[in-house]
Amino acid sequence: xxxxxxxxxxxxxxxxxxxxxxxxxxxxxxxxxxxxxxxxxxxxxxxxxxxxxxxxxxxxxxxxxxxxxxxxxxxxxxxxxxxxxxxxxxxxxxxxxxxxxxxxxxxxxxxxxxxxxxxxxxxxxxxxxxxxxxxxxxxxxxxxxxxxxxxxxxxxxxxxxxxxxxxxxxxxxxxxxxxxxxxxxxxxxxxxxxxxxxxxxxxxxxxxxxxxxxxxxxxxxxxxxxxxxxxxxx
Length: 234
Known about the structure:
By secondary structure, the chain is an alpha/beta fold. It contains 11 helices and 6 strands. A 6-stranded parallel sheet has the order 2-1-3-4-5-6, sandwiched between helices. The longest helix has 17 residues, at 101-117. It holds the Pfam family Abhydrolase_6.
């Protein structure tokens, strides 16, 4: 089995290193750095969800299970929609779609803040995701701080505010209505999962909630997440 691991906003492929080791006995994994992130920090734009999905499509030679965290959840959903022949199933972890009206109302100000303060504003997002400082927090924050501000701002706009974006719930509902592959969705909060449960999914899809975990739940509990992948995919 081939698994493509797609990191989130302001992260890089290194975020998957523990997962890669844990599933290596039964899968082949690829965890690339997305355009504008990690080793691809100098890659030219555009920095959009569609462009990131196009980049991934070019590197896939045989169909994969596409796994995405946060922004990566949008990327793999877009990849599966536009390149269905390259994907066999989708796994999303706290995907960056399904934002409610309240969150979308805040999006223009958040985008303006990203345009003004760049990665500093992005780092504050990481701080809010961790109730206390630990090694994972420090590592995640450092990756965000290394990501250029224009990359973070452009991708945030692409997720929630740009024409054709599907981060807002009405657009999410329309976009996912055409899904052709099983989706296995993992959430840290019941509120987000409740919206997912209101949607119609292809046969074989699953939705699971891990209460009491943070946004980076797959990194907080790598063994548990690797087990989930094994249970769902094998």
